[in-house]
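Milestone 3.1: sequence recovery, worked example.
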């Protein structure tokens, strides 16, 4: 340790100490342990923010159709499963509740389109009842969701 003092007119006004360090900056390859920590953290982030995590929902097998008319973005969705369960805006509903909820949505939202996502094994009379309730609630357009047939899907080169 070195001590330097500066004097002005014989009086010591400032003492400055200089410490000599024995540590040197490492120059070379990053160690394996910190590198593995970084790789594992990035991998964990990717796994948690990817589609690998299953989201709750119902499995539907939509009927196949050749036409390609689409639904507008933001349309209200009613889902009917093969077990005749009805979901409106991700809430389970009965046919009686459906009428009230459709009327409320039609009054509060600026949408006039209803999309019915029905499993291909869903009862036909349930779809007709939902269609009638949608018309009475004030929906101008009711669309039945379909998927493309497997044979007609052409992959681009």
């Amino acid at each position: 340790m070195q001590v330097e003092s500066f004097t002005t007119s014989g009086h010591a006004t400032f003492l400055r100490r200089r410490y000599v360090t024995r540590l040197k900056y490492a120059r070379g390859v990053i160690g394996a342990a910190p590198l593995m920590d970084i790789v594992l953290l990035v991998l964990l982030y990717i796994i948690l923010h990817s589609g690998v995590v299953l989201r709750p929902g119902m499995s539907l097998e939509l009927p196949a159709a050749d036409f390609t008319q689409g639904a507008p973005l933001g349309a209200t969705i009613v889902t009917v499963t093969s077990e005749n369960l009805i979901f409106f805006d991700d809430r389970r509903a009965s046919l009686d509740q459906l009428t009230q909820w459709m009327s409320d949505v039609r009054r509060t939202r600026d949408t006039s389109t209803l999309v019915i996502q029905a499993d291909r094994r869903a009862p036909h009379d349930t779809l007709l009842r939902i269609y009638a309730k949608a018309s009475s609630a004030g929906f101008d357009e009711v669309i039945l969701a379909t998927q493309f047939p497997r044979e007609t899907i052409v992959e681009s080169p």
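The first helix runs from residue 32 to 48. The CA atoms of residues 99 and 136 lie 8 Å apart.
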